[in-house]
Design a protein that fits this description.
four-stranded antiparallel β-sheet, 465 residues, 8 helices, mainly beta
């Protein structure tokens, strides 16, 4: 059910930003589910092409194996007839997919719980799935499909009011915005899944996060993580410029949502060097934004730990030392702390890191006191005190079950951190304040993104496992 690619954006007025008064992301997560709906955590099983649904309060797995690729055979048939698409499909499979198809990367429900938007990297699209039909196992569950301009989808971001969805168009250096509702704005009628706007990113756009009021977007690109040449040097010879050329532009930027204007853009490798940490990657991986939205915590490629960045501090040397694309280095923004966490694979060549990720997964509790980090190549998760940066590790030895390749963390209800354990096909749930594991749940093949959402109680009553 592949559709012809959209080559141009819809000519929509600036009113499409639809800002106004919106509910904050934290308020949405903390509030009770709307009448007739249940708070759940959706777990995307990347290699299986399915989702698992977990009750966000009781931590009970309600449904496994929800098929998010009911059109798989048609998609594969279409790919085989297009040499360019086939080449990218194989490259994604053998590169980022580690020899597997990447069927499900990210997902968000609409606020009424009726539809689930899903980014599907191997199919280079985003689809909107009728949740009731998908949970019932029907093959006609996809109600809308939108292709990327490029050949792979990745992370998504949902606006706090639930009306707009940002999707990373991995091979086209852009992020595309779609409507998550049917509405009329400024005389223009929008339907669920309509494409609205886009903004420029660097090489391989990655994660996008809205501020609580929806007025700004924090976004990062990670470069060509699937290429060789991961080492910064060989012996005494530094190859930094060559490494940068191989990986491409890796930017961290803040946008104004009303018009998607980029207001600040940093090259974090250069910011880290300015702070006294040379030869670190520019690629900002998962990030966690503090409640004040001034401090951002993030992971960078190859680094076993995290970085604290103050977006409002004066630039450390007061000079404009570089230009990122066409945008000069901001006069504000400074690295405050670089925090190392245990490196359990010190002799592993960097080329063996999964998509350049030493650590991939970072979130913060609502109070802003504790960070939750996924130690991907080290097979642990860590709860990190934001003030002291002391940490508690959760792994096979401390819990009694596998913490193989954790690849994402997210905040859940009741002050919890949810961690996808991709190699263990499981999810762990940690209590931020008590620093203890609350649950360990079997889900599906290679769980990756976990998102809070809603599902109808009636649908669950009829079709739950």
């Amino acid at each position: 059910m592949r559709r012809t690619a959209l080559l141009t954006l819809l000519a929509l007025p600036a009113a499409l930003a639809g800002l106004g008064v919106v509910e904050s992301a934290d308020a949405q997560s903390a509030a009770a589910a709307p009448t007739g709906l249940r708070d759940v955590m959706w777990v995307g099983n990347n290699w299986a092409g399915t989702a698992s649904i977990v009750d966000a309060n009781t931590l009970e797995v309600l449904k496994r194996g929800v098929n998010l690729i009911p059109d798989k055979e048609q998609e594969l048939a279409d790919i085989r007839t297009d040499p360019e698409r086939l080449a990218f499909y194989i490259a994604i499979q053998q590169g980022p997919g580690e020899g597997h198809d990447q069927y499900v990367d990210d997902m968000f429900t609409t606020k009424d719980g009726k539809y689930l938007a899903v980014s599907r990297p191997s199919f280079a699209d985003v689809v909107w799935v009728d949740v009731a039909k998908a949970v019932a196992g029907r093959t006609d569950s996809i109600v809308r499909e939108q292709p990327m301009d490029g050949h792979r989808t990745d992370h998504m971001g949902l606006s706090p009011d639930g009306r707009r969805l940002l999707v990373s168009d991995s091979t086209e250096r852009q992020v595309i915005e779609f409507s998550m509702v049917d509405e009329t704005v400024g005389g223009t009628t929008l339907k669920l899944g309509d494409r609205t706007r886009s903004f420029e990113s660097g090489e391989t756009p990655h994660e996008s996060n809205y501020t609580q009021d929806g007025s700004r977007v924090f976004h990062a690109s990670i470069g060509k993580v699937y290429t060789p040449g991961d080492e910064q040097g060989y012996g005494p010879v530094k190859i930094g410029p060559l490494h940068d050329a191989l990986k491409g532009d890796r930017w961290f930027q803040i946008l104004r949502n009303s018009d998607l204007k980029i207001t600040q853009r940093w090259d974090m490798g250069k910011e880290l060097a300015e702070a006294g940490y040379p030869d670190m990657s520019s690629a900002v991986r998962p990030m966690a934004i503090a409640p004040d939205e001034r401090f951002v915590y993030f992971q960078v490629s190859y680094f076993h730990g995290l970085v604290e960045f103050d977006t409002q501090a004066r630039d450390l040397n007061g000079l404009v030392d570089y230009t990122a694309g066409t945008i000069p280095e901001p006069r504000t923004g400074a690295v405050r702390r670089v925090v190392s966490l245990p490196n359990r694979v010190p002799t592993m060549p960097k080329e063996q890191y999964v998509n350049d990720s030493a650590h991939h997964g970072l979130s913060i509790d609502k109070a802003g006191t504790t960070l939750c980090a996924a130690g991907t190549m080290d097979d642990y998760a860590a709860l990190v005190d934001r003030r002291t940066m002391s940490y508690k590790v959760f792994d096979t030895a401390t819990t009694g079950h596998s913490y193989g390749k954790p690849y994402w963390t997210t905040e859940g209800l009741n002050n919890t951190c949810w961690i996808s354990l991709s190699e263990a096909d499981s999810v762990a749930v940690l209590d931020f304040s008590k620093k203890k594991e609350l649950a360990y749940l079997a889900v599906g093949d290679h769980p990756q993104r976990i998102r809070h959402g809603f599902v109808s109680n009636a649908v669950l009553a009829r079709y739950a496992d």
